[in-house]
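Budget justification note: compute hours in this period were largely spent on complex prediction jobs such as the one shown. Inputs:
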Amino acid sequence: MNHALLVIDVQNDFCPNGALAVTDGDQIVKGINAIMPEFNAVIMTQDWHPRGHSSFATSNDADPMTVIQMPYGAQVLWPDHCIIGTSGADFHQELNVNNANMIIRKGYNSKIDSYSAFFENDRQTPTGLMGYLQSRGIDTLTLVGLATDFCVNYSALDAAKLGFDVTVRMEMCRAIDFNGSLAVAVNEMKSAGVRIT
Ligand code: VGL
Ligand code: ZN
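Corresponding output:
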């Protein structure tokens, strides 16, 4: 078994006072740092959007947290967040980024959102993470980070579909919980065979 820790989007904009703050998003950082040494590899994702990204409410003349149809399906419109090169896009300052073997950025294509660490939201454009994991012989993944019901959920579902043994450590995740999205996400992950602890 070759086991990697996948740390999803532990960035300032998803922490208190951030542009898309997740309640208590910063409370998971110490725990994540503490478990890093248990893994053969540590991989972090970073949400990384150009200004004017199509997932932003401001780009669609709409209110944040409304839903529109995109060519690839439903899209929640978010406040502007994780803009390339801004402090909001930086990792939380206490996250031990020095332990990351690999940092994968996602969401840099203006016309498509990218929740999953593996594929953009069309569910077919790859980020390259699969190749990295395969070439390192990693078959088992533990996921932690933000937000449970969006980027963690999408990443866990794709990982399970790709054949990895997947665990999500809920005490090291926090959710946006928009319109019941957390409960839906937990059910989807369980149905996909993801271990929830
Ligand atoms: C995320 C909404 C928009 C996440 C990223 O990290 O869960 N959510 N961009
Ligand atoms: Zn985003």
